[in-house]
């Protein structure tokens, strides 16, 4: 097992009817900004519910954080935080609203150039953020219990992380996710699945707990994925999806193991260029990446084939082929297309995607940092 530090201060309140905790978690005299997306949280009555619990606190709202939240939108919210002297933010939404809120919380108190920080200048580290909590409405990203976020700016998506942007608390009520369109639930299953594989399908370091927890999450997602899409109000299935998604990216399964975020980094370019949903980009890239990187990942791919898909006989290369086919078939069983061509992308557009990766510094990806733009090109071609 590799050395690791682990820190996660987010309090989780899981289950139905948990809005009352907002009153205990947010200081009595706080000036509160509620952040939300395009309106689903308002239509579903969550804003009114939160306001009722916030009682006499001064409450402001910022509506309109878009999917794949944009820097300019978030900077407007940061300005509101400054001008209204907000001292607590409550994010009600999916990964985009929670990520966006993390950036707002940092940018509002940041004295340097927030854009330069976002675009990855490692010397620029914020040293504080406005505290915030979240009500999660879309199980997928794990943003409700981690300190990372992704913000879109110009032609790119940029990831950031700060020890000051863990939510103080997150409410995980599976019933508030019942209104999600089927495609968003499917995206969420895939996102949680791929977060897990990115911390699992690397090379062995004898991290048995992390491996077995990762395998537990993958099995759970395979067991409940289709059911939770077809039966949105099946509480048990949805509760298992919510907790799987949180556990997939709260740091626990990633502690002490190599990590390979190449599927995400290539996927981000597909969202930035073609507007393909985050989860869908992952379903496109992962099967092809597993194929192209089968030598680097051989031992873990064989473990994955055996422990996840019960494939333990036959020549090794064939076992890996079958495990990749099973993975693709699982994503497709959720209604997610796994080929770039099915999203209208043509082979002629691949060089431009590779150039974008280069422009954004994504030239040495993977657990071994040797996944070059040339290999990204191969992966994209294999995903057509
Ligand atoms: O904007 P509203 O009206 O709320 O509608 C949203 C949005 O259109 C809708 N929605 C959310 N909850 C709903 C609902 N509709 C009905 N009922 C509900 N209960 O769903 C749509 C998509 O929402 P979004 O937040 O964009 O989806 P998701 O949670 O998948 O977040 C995607 C973003 O998270 C980033 C992605 O890059 C992307 O920008 N990620 C963040 C990560 C992190 N912080 O650790 C890791 C991930 O890998 C990912 O990169
Ligand atoms: Zn993701």
Helix content: 40-55%
- Could you name the ranges where pLDDT drops below 50 across 5 or more consecutive residues? none
How many domains? The number is 2
The helix tally amounts to 15
Q: Determine the structural class based on helices, strands and strand pairing.
A: alpha/beta
Attached small molecules: 5,6-dihydroxy-NADP, zinc ion
CATH superfamily of the largest domain: Dehydroquinate synthase-like - alpha domain
Rounded to an integer in angstroms, the radius of gyration calculated over CA atoms is 20 Å
SSE pattern, N- to C-terminal: EHEHHEHEHHEEEEHHHHHHHHH
Net shape: globular
Order of strands across the main sheet: 1-8-5-4-2-3
Q: Can you describe this structure?
A:
The protein contains 15 helices and 8 strands. The longest helix has 23 residues, at 208-230. The chain has 2 domains: 11-176, Rossmann fold; 181-382, Dehydroquinate synthase-like, alpha domain (Up-down Bundle). A 6-stranded parallel β-sheet has the order 1-8-5-4-2-3, sandwiched between helices. Strands 6-7 form a two-stranded antiparallel sheet. The chain is α/β, with parallel strands linked by helices and 384 residues long. Helix 7 (182-198) packs antiparallel against helix 8 and helix 10 (262-274) packs across helix 11 (278-292). The mean pLDDT is 97. It is 48% helix and 11% strand. Strand 6 (148-153) and strand 7 form a beta hairpin. The radius of gyration is 20 Å and the shape is globular. 5,6-dihydroxy-NADP (NZQ) binds next to helix 2, helix 5, strand 6 and helix 7. Zinc ion (ZN) binds at residues 141, 191, 195, 264, 278.
